[in-house]
Structure formats: structure tokens, C-alpha cells
Design brief:
Shape: flat
Strand content: 5-15%
Helix content: over 70%
Distance between the termini: 39 Å
Radius of gyration: 28 Å
Structural class: mainly alpha
Order of helices and strands: HEEH
Number of strands: 2
């Protein structure tokens, strides 16, 4: 039996193991997501009391505590994404420039006979 048959079989075996590990990781991911959902749902139920948020000049706003926490979390995430956007656009612009530079420097070789 030639060597490449054995190698091909080993590759199939490794592929099967990787597929099983991928399935297990997907199940584990769903398990973690479910646990986090239950944990956050319990947090929301326990913190449903109405609180008063006092602003300057006597303005007040009353809302459930969990809603206020969620709004500030979303606002913080939006500020974080906005802070990263300048860096990402700069990288994209530099990448486009470098790709154009590489294409301009490519040397076309004549066909060898």
C-alpha cells in the first residue's frame, strides 16, 4: 500500500476530529450564551425598581434601573466604536495605498521558451 493512501486516511481522521471539536465548541458557545442570558434576565428582574436620575437645573428623569444601566452601556459602546473608526479608516487608506504601490512595482517577466 503506497504512503499517500495512509496519509490521506490520516488527513480524513484529523478532519473528522476537527469537525467533532467544532460541533462541541458550537454547543459550548450556545451553552455559554444561554447562561449569560439567564444571568442578565435575573439581573433585569432584580433591578426593576424605578430610580430618579437628577440632571442640572432641577431636571429629573424616572426610569427602571436596568433601563438606565442598559442605556449607558450602549452609549459607552457607541463612543468606543466611534473612537476606533478614525484608526480603522486610516488603516484602510494606508492599505489601499500600499496595494497600489505593490501593483505599480510589479515587473512583468517575458515568457520563457
Amino acid at each position: 500500500m503506497p504512503f499517500f493512501y495512509v496519509r490521506s486516511g490520516m488527513q480524513r481522521l484529523k478532519s473528522g476530529i476537527a469537525d467533532e471539536q467544532g460541533k462541541l465548541m458550537r454547543y459550548f458557545g450556545w451553552l455559554v450564551k444561554g447562561f449569560l442570558f439567564i444571568l442578565l434576565l435575573g439581573f433585569a428582574v432584580k433591578n426593576s425598581d424605578v430610580v430618579t436620575l437628577t440632571y442640572y437645573l432641577g431636571y429629573q428623569w424616572q426610569a427602571p434601573l436596568v433601563l438606565i444601566i442598559l442605556m449607558f452601556f450602549v452609549a459607552g459602546a457607541a463612543v468606543g466604536v466611534a473612537a476606533c473608526m478614525g484608526y480603522l479608516f486610516r488603516q484602510r487608506r494606508e492599505l489601499t495605498h500600499l496595494r497600489k504601490e505593490v501593483q505599480a512595482r510589479q515587473i512583468v517577466l517575458p515568457d520563457e521558451i
